[in-house]
Design goal:
alpha/beta, about 30% helix
């Protein structure tokens, strides 16, 4: 009997019983005279190391690429543990009374058709188009058909924001939520939302694989995560990519019939266009523990008008210098970055309105929505701010029906091609949306 695959765990993470039909394979193997990791697909020689192993009592090679998930050696057994019996069709009901826009409706219909055929699709939708709502009907139909559905995204903040929204609209469906430190580790259910790293724990488990923010770091640069996505899919399954900023390589992967573009936001207002404002030699100012006056004036404007706001900076060192300078005069200012131990709590306070200004690195360029927030980038000419990053950051503005405009400002010491390209990208999308009749009259 062929095993029903699902969880893909190290032997010590899984308790075997005589009644279970499983597949066991060696963790690290020699392949074409080189090492290969069966869990993450790593074959880079520099990402393997050896040590004297107490378990096999010999020099043993392990994979460093996926060591954050627990060490995998040559003597490690990887177990493909069976999921529960295949799901039967059942009357799952979507609990959502919203209405899709014209652009969302087009994408939703194409998604449903794609999933029915087990094909692939690229949904190219501007920030604030309502990508999550586009997925609802496709997920509903897949769950009704007894399929296992996974939504994966590179950022844990996105997972934490999407999970309660999915639970609200599918209250009768078991939901597994996976990210570093999650209590759901080692579980599988009909509906899973996970960071892309967590997909390393699965093998041929999902009928529908949806990758949100497919262009985001680290997924966009880490071949291990691409391997994880393919490994976690069943041989006959659908693969859906969602992004506002697909790379040229990504666009070339799909025929035009398998790309659906939404150039307008769900509320029908145009995308806010960034303004460029010179702030002088900002690096020198920070070194002298000073802030350019245009930055403090911008902060003052947010307080006077009772706005919440993001202030993006290029590097953690700059964040740690900027926050104390602002905090001397302005209350309720926080700073957050990827390795911040209090990151989750700070973002939650920001969502609740307890934090007025959030100084952040690109870690919050996507996935965190604050209604009515303004945005500025301090040092927008830094190389870390690519066209894609700038478009995503601008997308934090004007997302709510109540305040669909907002202000996005690029403070810089000299215009870059990325800044100009990002502005042109947004202008082009607005023109296309107008041409297609997707904007309010």
């Amino acid at each position: 009997m062929i095993p029903i695959r699902g969880l893909h765990l190290r032997e010590e993470e899984f308790i075997l019983s005589d009644s279970q039909d499983v597949e066991i394979e060696q963790g690290v193997i020699r392949k074409n005279n080189a090492y290969f990791c069966n869990r993450c697909g790593n074959e880079d020689p520099s990402m393997f190391a050896s040590y004297q192993c107490a378990r096999c009592e010999k020099e043993c090679t392990y994979c460093r690429s996926c060591i954050m998930m627990g060490r995998v050696n040559e003597c490690t057994s990887l177990v493909s543990a069976p999921i529960r019996a295949p799901l039967k069709p059942r009357p799952i009901q979507l609990k959502w009374d919203g209405t899709l826009s014209k652009g969302q409706e087009k994408a939703s219909n194409q998604l449903v058709n794609t999933l029915a055929k087990n094909e692939s699709l690229l949904i190219w939708a501007v920030c604030g188009a309502g990508k999550t709502e586009i997925l609802f009907r496709g997920i509903e139909k897949s769950l009704q058909d007894g399929k296992y559905v996974c939504i994966a995204t590179p950022r844990s903040d996105v997972v934490r924001e999407l999970a309660p929204r999915l639970k609200r609209v599918f209250p009768d469906v078991e939901l597994t939520v996976l990210y570093g430190g999650s209590e759901d580790r080692g579980k599988i259910s009909p509906l899973v939302i996970a960071t892309t790293h967590q997909l390393l724990r699965y093998k041929e488990a999902f009928d529908v694989m949806i990758i949100d923010e497919v262009d985001a770091f680290p997924y966009s640069v880490d071949a291990t995560l691409t391997f994880a996505v393919q490994k976690a899919r069943k041989p006959k399954s659908s693969l859906i990519y969602l992004t506002a900023t697909p790379s040229e390589k990504m666009k070339r992967k799909f025929p035009s019939s398998h790309i659906v573009k939404i150039p307008a936001r769900y509320h029908g207002y145009p995308l806010p266009i960034p303004t460029f404002q010179w702030c002088g030699n900002w690096k020198k100012a920070i070194q002298k523990e000073r802030l350019p006056k245009v930055i403090t004036h911008w902060i003052q404007h947010q307080y006077e008008n009772h706005y919440q706001a993001f202030l993006f900076v290029p590097h953690v060192s700059m964040l740690k210098a900027t926050v104390p300078l602002l905090s001397k005069k302005y209350p309720n200012i926080e700073g957050v970055y990827a390795e911040d131990p209090d990151r989750k709590e700070k973002v939650e306070r920001f969502r609740k309105g307890d934090v007025r200004i959030m100084v952040t690195t690109t870690i919050l360029e996507r996935g965190v929505t604050i209604k009515g927030a303004n945005v500025a980038i301090f040092g927008a000419d830094d190389p870390v701010f690519t066209e894609s990053a700038l478009v995503q950051i601008a997308g934090r503005v004007g997302r709510s029906q109540e305040r669909p405009t907002g202000i996005i400002t690029f403070f810089h010491g000299g215009k870059t091609n990325a800044m100009v390209d990002a502005r042109d990208h947004l202008i082009t999308m607005n023109r296309l949306a107008k041409k297609e009749g997707l904007l309010r009259a």
